[in-house]
Amino acid sequence: MKGYEVIEKIKGYINERDMIVSSTGNISREVFHILDQPQVYLRGSLGLQISVGLGIAIEEKKRKVLVILGDGSLLMGMGSIITSSYYKPSNLKILILDNAKYFTTGGQKTVSSAINFTKFLGSLEASFKISKNASEESINQDLTKFINSKGFSILHLKIESGKKALSNITWHPEEITKRIKKKII
Amino acid sequence: MSEIITSNLFLKFLEENNFSTITGVPCSYFKDLLMYLDKEYDQKKIKHILATREDEAVGIASGVAFTNRKAIVYLQNSGLGNIGDALTSLAQLYKLPMLLLISYRGLLPDKDFPEHSIMGEVTEDFLRALKTPYWILEYETWQETMKEAIYTMEKLQSPVALLVKKGVLSL
Questions:
Q1: Cβ contact A51–B62 (<8 Å)
Q2: ipTM of the complex
Q3: A62 touching B, CB under 8 A?
């Protein structure tokens, strides 16, 4: 499966109270166009998506916070998945879409293939932690377990590269913040 | 020797100004405060979150600000070099206020610590270049300075910084 196909599947698993934090480039664009608005669409700050999700999760304990990021962002901010595992907020869900590429900037390679994700995630304190290939046959079952898990959860999916032709996010970041603050009240 | 700002009073002041979270990367200049936070302080009032890097701490504080709450981030000025993008493409861009408590290393008391000397020289230029308003925190005037910093932070809806020299928050 491609990243946007996984994001399309997420539609059925989140409600209007949930908060998605999406990563720089294509992922934010896909979340903006495919899923309910508004969400925390991050445009820059590669590597900081998990930390932003953690900040929201510790303050809004009754709201599910789903962070969607790529392997490039995970690698740049590697410490944050450890910090999250230390505090393990039960409402925090981290979805890693791994195509082993910096896809937005032209498909340059990342070093993510050096990680054995089953072992790596297995070593972290999380109540759900699975690494697998994203596949049509199992995606619904995987997302159900991952998003409905009662505790802090991490799902790492290997995906194929590919994107939809989508226009840029039309809201200025200041407008994104205004809409998020309204959603929180 | 002048007195230091009591950790208890400092945290009370943050409580009264509705800070919900404190996060950051340690400096020996904050030793007393961080010890008090972990050993004696009731974290139901202000949560303490350990960060692995300074930009991660700014990310956490940004998440807090998205929820209409306020966080304070503590770091050494060496860590200023790590937060340029976190400020410019996240906190400043998205209008997310936060208070940065930065130890001012590399001045005279650090003459035997060359690792701090270059950043010590450029710290204020660095903050000016990042368009981040800053104040130097001093024992005699700390509450007025912090009030002014918090007022500016709220007005700009953006990060502001307090520079802390040796002996102000910890001996």
A1: yes
A2: 0.97
A3: no
As a whole number, the mean pLDDT across chain A is 96
Q: How many CB pairs under 8 A join A and B?
A: 114
- Which of B47, B49, B67 lies nearest to residue A60, judging by beta carbons? B67
**Nearest CB to A55 within list B62, B85, B88:** B62
d(CA B103, CA A83): 23
Question: Residue A53 — φ and ψ, nearest 5°?
Answer: -60, -40
Q: In CATH, what number is assigned to the domain containing residue B69?
A: 3.40.50.970
B169 domain-assigned = no
Give the nearest partner residue to B94 out of A77, A82, A177, using CB atoms.
A177
Residue-number span of the structural domain to which B37 is assigned: 7-164
- How does pLDDT run across A40-71, given as a tens digit for each residue? 999 999 999 999 999 999 999 999 999 999 99
Handedness of CA A4, A38, B84, B12 (dihedral sign): negative
Collapsed DSSP state (helix, strand, coil) of residue A89: coil
Whether residue A89 contacts residue B21, with contact meaning beta carbons closer than 8 Å, is answered with no
Strand-pair category, A108-109 with A101-102: antiparallel
Write down the domain spans for chain A: 3-184
CATH code assigned to A3-184: 3.40.50.970
State the Cα angle at A20 between A89 and A168, rounded to 5°.
Answer: 150
| Residue B52 is assigned to a structural domain of this protein | yes
- The answer to whether residue B171 is domain-embedded is no
What is the rounded CA–CA span in Å between residue A106 and residue B6? 53
The reply to whether B54 touches chain A by the CB within 8 Å rule is: no
Q: What is the DSSP letter of A168?
A: P
What angle, 0 to 180 degrees and rounded to 10, lies between the N-to-C axes of helices B142-156 and B7-16? 30
Q: Phi and psi (nearest 5°) for A70?
A: -95, 180
Nearest chain B residue to A42 by CA distance is: B90
Q: For A124-141, how does the pLDDT look when each residue is reduced to its tens digit (9 = 90+)? A: 999 999 999 999 999 999
Q: Which positions of chain B have pLDDT values less than 70?
A: 1-2
- If one counts the domains in chain B, the total is 1
